[in-house]
């Protein structure tokens, strides 16, 4: 092919690699926003295609294939990757070049798949991604030697950096590399991987005796669980012990802002909108930023130190005992941040029934959006008292709520397995335990910044918008001339709340709670903003309402109502984004309806029992 | 123009802006559907994309709508090998 025809013929690339190799980040880096996203026909597997122009002017089309560990597919995702690589996919032409992405920090896992792809005898380029992270960890890779052994171009990339793919783009801009020499069909890929690693990679240090000594305690079947429980207890205690002064500071700032707005704006609807809608709604949620940051600080530290995979190892026995696949741990762990990535991570579970069961229980893990609701109710109803001189009652309550979610999930999985088939083949959890390491403060800070920005962005967009809308609903229509009841009861929100209260009254929810549950459908924490707005509008003219939401609900609700709402929030699938992801991942409205009905029923039942038992005891 | 006469105008603007923001953030798929309808009705592509989002550019990886793959790939567990 001459230079002119090279430029006019688009280059067709397929990005292929093991999950978490940074393939999608590289895809985004190469194509920017020039992407098309669709589904492969008849499957829930996402098809992502992107385009970019090489420096020579030649156009390139990139297909981001689903992550796969092997061409021996065990899931629909891996089957698509296999078929495209083999040129057997009915709707996809065989790519000109396989752009194989490998995580440079974990070559041992990724290289085996590279060798398997090499067997196909197709032109290939290997992108050694996360080259910067590997260098930071002291992993030295001789890229030239690797290139010589594999017989394919090897290029280091850093997909998350702006110029991180420049060398790769330059390498793609020209003639295709020749197809590498084929590996023998009967070659032992593991042995070949070990041989190549020995020749090209030098690791910083082998397993240290210190690591082994720590693991003897931490991975002990009994002591390890006790350590895990203690670690979790410390985390939840700290959320309350440390957040207080910061939350108080934000609360005071929000209150001051409300007072200033109240003083400087003339009486009227605009002032009410700003004070009762925007400041009360957004401020009511912002107060919980310190708790969220402290919780994520611990999660990041535990992750960076290498403790989380060990926790997975310890809990695997319980998961399998409850009827969950060993592979369900990652989706469930991810769901502590947000159920959406957790549900998407169930793609790695090949058995459809196991996968649906994990999708069903993953949202019971307490996502960060529930934290403001928990924190509000705990702060209002649980005294800030020391227990046994060490523990704080509020921290213990938060710990209990997280545990209720975990054990609720395990219980539901156990019942589902009892009702379903027995003796099904168990999918073992296969994972590598990383070395213990001191968390890098910069990485932890960056992670915290990311979490903080996500929360603030939501506060400044979704929560702000819904607070304003809720204010309108709580303010209009204005009461008639001869009104006798509180003005908010004549509003749309009042009517909606009262209509919903018929359904929620048996579990102790007032009409104000019912109103707050509606914006909570968009995101769980918005329920706090909803409550703040409803109570602020109800007490219009008293600017301090914004910062006194806790006091207001403590006066108006019974303990049974507060506990019932907590029980509702442990199980209920209120978030619409989660619902849409369940629909997408199951590709079935029926399964989605079953999912929503089961969780709602569970939440209603739990709230009902909690309400009546608490009412009887108090 | 007096404050009293401006107040309903400001309130209406804030309401419309909030409805739009809530639509984009809480119901991105509905927003894209409305965008497609407005394109059919003759609204210029650039304006429709700005107001209701562009299906082609939607795979931003922001994670706010769950409509893209990025969150699934950033699991909180590290699987790097011991040696």
Automatic annotation (TrEMBL), chain A:
Transmembrane region positions?
Answer: 217-236, 278-302, 356-382, 394-416, 455-474, 557-582, 594-617
Transcription keyword on record? no
Query: What InterPro entries does the record point to?
Result: Fe2_transport_prot_B_C, FeoB_GTPase, G_FEOB_dom, Gate_dom, GTP-bd, P-loop_NTPase
The FeoB-type G domain, residue ranges: 10-178
Q: Does the keyword Transmembrane apply?
A: yes
Q: Which UniProt keywords apply?
A: Membrane, Transmembrane, Transmembrane helix
Note the PANTHER family from the entry: FE(2+) TRANSPORTER FEOB, FERROUS IRON TRANSPORT PROTEIN B
- Protein's recorded name: Ferrous iron transport protein B
Species: Uliginosibacterium aquaticum
From TrEMBL, chain B:
Q: Which domain of life is it from?
A: Bacteria
Q: Which InterPro entries match?
A: DUF6587
| Name used for this protein in its record | Uncharacterized protein
Native species: Uliginosibacterium aquaticum
């Amino acid at each position: 092919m001459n230079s002119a025809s090279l430029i006019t013929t688009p280059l067709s690339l397929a990005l292929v690699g093991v999950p978490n190799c940074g393939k999608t980040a590289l895809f985004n880096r190469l194509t920017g926003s020039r992407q098309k996203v669709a589904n492969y026909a008849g499957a829930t597997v996402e098809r992502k295609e992107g385009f970019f122009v090489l420096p020579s002017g030649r156009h390139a089309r990139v297909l981001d294939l689903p992550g796969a560990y092997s061409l021996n597919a065990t899931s629909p995702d891996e089957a698509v990757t296999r078929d495209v690589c083999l040129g057997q996919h009915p709707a996809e032409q065989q790519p000109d070049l396989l752009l194989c992405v490998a995580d440079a920090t974990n070559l041992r896992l990724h290289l085996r798949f590279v060798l398997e792809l090499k067997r196909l005898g197709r032109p290939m380029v290997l992108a050694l991604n996360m080259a910067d992270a590997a260098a930071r960890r002291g992993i030295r890779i001789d890229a030239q030697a690797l290139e010589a052994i594999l017989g394919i171009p090897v290029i280091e990339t850093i997909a998350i950096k702006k110029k991180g793919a420049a060398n790769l783009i330059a390498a793609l801009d020209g003639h295709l590399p020749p197809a590498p020499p084929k590996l023998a069909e009967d070659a032992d890929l593991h042995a070949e991987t070990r041989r190549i690693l020995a020749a090209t990679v030098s690791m910083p240090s082998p397993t240290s005796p210190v690591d082994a000594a720590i693991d003897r305690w931490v991975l002990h079947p009994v002591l390890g669980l006790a350590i895990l429980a203690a670690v979790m207890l410390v985390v939840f205690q700290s959320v309350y012990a440390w957040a207080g002064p910061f939350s108080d500071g934000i609360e005071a700032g929000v209150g001051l802002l409300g007072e200033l707005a109240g003083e400087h704006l003339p009486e009227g609807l605009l002032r009410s909108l700003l004070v009762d809608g925007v400041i009360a709604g957004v401020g009511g949620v912002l107060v919980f930023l310190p708790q969220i940051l402290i919780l994520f600080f611990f999660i990041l530290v535990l992750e960076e130190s290498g403790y989380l995979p060990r926790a997975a190892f310890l809990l695997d026995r319980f998961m399998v005992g409850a009827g969950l696949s060993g592979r369900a741990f990652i989706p469930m762990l991810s769901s502590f941040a947000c159920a959406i990535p957790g549900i998407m991570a169930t793609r790695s579970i090949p058995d459809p029934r196991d996968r649906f069961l994990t999708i069903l229980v993953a949202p019971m893990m307490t996502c960060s959006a529930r934290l403001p609701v928990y924190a509000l109710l705990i702060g209002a109803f649980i005294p800030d008292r020391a227990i046994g001189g060490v523990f704080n009652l509020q921290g213990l309550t938060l710990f209990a709520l997280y545990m209720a979610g975990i054990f609720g999930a395990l219980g539901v999985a156990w019942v589902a397995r009892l009702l379903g088939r027995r003796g099904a083949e168990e999918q073992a959890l296969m994972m590598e335990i990383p070395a213990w390491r001191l968390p890098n403060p910069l990485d932890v800070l960056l992670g915290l910044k990311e979490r903080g920005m996500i929360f603030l962005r939501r506060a400044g967009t979704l929560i702000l918008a819904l607070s304003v809308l809720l204010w309108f609903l709580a303010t209009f229509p204005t009461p008639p001339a001869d009104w006798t009841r509180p003005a908010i009861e004549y509003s749309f929100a009042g009517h909606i709340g009262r209509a919903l209260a018929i359904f929620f009254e048996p579990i102790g929810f007032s009409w104000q709670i019912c109103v707050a549950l509606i914006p909570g459908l968009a995101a769980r924490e918005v329920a706090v903003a909803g409550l703040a707005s409803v109570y602020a509008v109800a007490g219009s003219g008293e600017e301090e309402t914004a910062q006194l939401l806790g006091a207001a609900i403590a006066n108006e609700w019974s303990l049974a109502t507060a506990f019932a709402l907590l029980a509702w929030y442990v199980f209920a699938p209120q978030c619409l984004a989660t619902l849409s992801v369940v629909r997408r991942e199951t590709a079935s409205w029926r399964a989605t309806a079953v999912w929503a009905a089961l969780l709602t029923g569970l939440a209603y039942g739990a709230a009902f029992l909690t309400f009546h038992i608490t009412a009887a005891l108090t | 123009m007096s404050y009293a006469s401006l107040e309903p105008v400001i309130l209406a603007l804030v309401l419309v802006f909030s409805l739009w923001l809530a639509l984009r953030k809480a119901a991105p798929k509905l927003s894209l559907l409305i965008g497609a309808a407005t394109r059919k009705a003759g609204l210029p592509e650039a304006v429709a994309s700005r107001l209701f989002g562009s299906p082609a550019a939607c795979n931003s990886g922001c994670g706010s709508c769950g409509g893209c793959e990025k969150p699934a790939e950033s699991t909180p567990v590290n699987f790097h090998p011991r040696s």
